[in-house]
Design brief:
The protein is of the alpha/beta class and 256 residues long. The strands form three sheets. It has a five-stranded mixed sheet. It has a two-stranded antiparallel ribbon with strand order 4-9. It has helices at residues 3-32, 50-60, 70-85, 90-100, 123-127, 129-139, 157-167, 180-185, 226-236, and strands spanning 112-117, 144-150, 172-175, 189-190, 192-197, 202-206, 212-214, 217-218, 250-251.
């Protein structure tokens, strides 16, 4: 099946999958709130029981075809952002992010996880690629997960894949169109790293090292390796001397 027929079939499958998502959300809402609206009249402004919603979505994820429907996913991003502007419940948006943004970086057990917030158009981010690759390789055997977080909802998956391949950036790419991960990690700049322990607690958020003093002004070599030290301390269960540092790069607040 090719051409318009294939596109129509994909669109129908996407609508069917999205409809199943709303059924799941509706069921979760009815279980989490006895005063919830009746089926068919779900009030999306209500705050959902997030763990129950996510569990419901994950249980049905195998029936969805979103991985084959990038166009449907892009449509979902836009829908979620519209819902956000209309002050929809934040947990609904987080649930949509978990389903349509890709994988959940906190879903699987890990001794530590590092979220690297990046922009494809930030030159400082791209210059850090070799150092990030070195750090990821250093901790690969110690149960540390690395994730590349792209907060720009306008970026296509093809652009993200090209960016990762071109600069050989480490980690699993994931989209954060609603900036839920940005808020959790206290991320404001690209590049910025956030380290979480095995329990999901934020232990460090800030720069990779102190090479850049200001935008366009850099040392010949860094004098501190903040991210590397933070990961090591998190794995050893030790306090981090500077748990928050100032990153230098491109603002994430510009991304809508």
């Amino acid at each position: 099946m090719t051409g318009p027929t294939a596109a129509a079939g994909a669109a129908a499958a996407g609508l069917s999958s999205l409809g199943a998502v709303f059924v799941s959300l509706e069921q979760a809402l009815s279980h989490s709130n006895p005063n919830a609206a009746k089926p068919g009249k779900t009030n999306f402004l209500m705050v959902f029981n997030l763990p129950l919603v996510l569990e419901c979505l994950r249980n049905n994820l195998s029936r969805f075809y979103v991985n084959r429907l990038p166009d449907a996913r892009d449509l979902a991003y836009k829908f979620a952002k519209i819902a956000h502007m209309r002050r929809a419940g934040i947990t609904f948006l987080l649930a949509m992010t978990a389903l349509f943004g890709g994988q959940d970086p906190f879903a699987n057990p890990a001794r530590a996880r590092v979220l690297l917030f990046v922009r494809t158009d930030c030159p400082i981010t791209n210059r850090y690629a070799p150092e990030l690759g070195r750090i990821a390789e250093e901790f690969a055997a110690r149960g540390v997960e690395f994730w590349l977080v792209y907060p720009d909802a306008s970026e296509t998956e093809a652009a993200l894949a090209q960016h990762k391949a071109e600069y050989k950036l480490p980690g699993t790419p994931i989209r954060d169109p609603l900036h839920a991960l940005m808020k959790r990690a206290e991320a404001r700049i690209s590049p910025q790293a956030a380290v979480f322990d095995r329990a999901g607690h934020l232990t460090y958020s800030g720069r990779i090292d102190d090479r850049y003093v200001a935008f366009g002004k850099a040392r010949s070599a860094p004098t501190t390796h903040d991210l590397e030290a933070a990961i090591a301390a998190t794995l050893d269960g030790k306090p981090i001397k500077e748990a928050r540092t100032r990153s230098v790069g491109c603002y994430l607040a510009d991304l809508k």
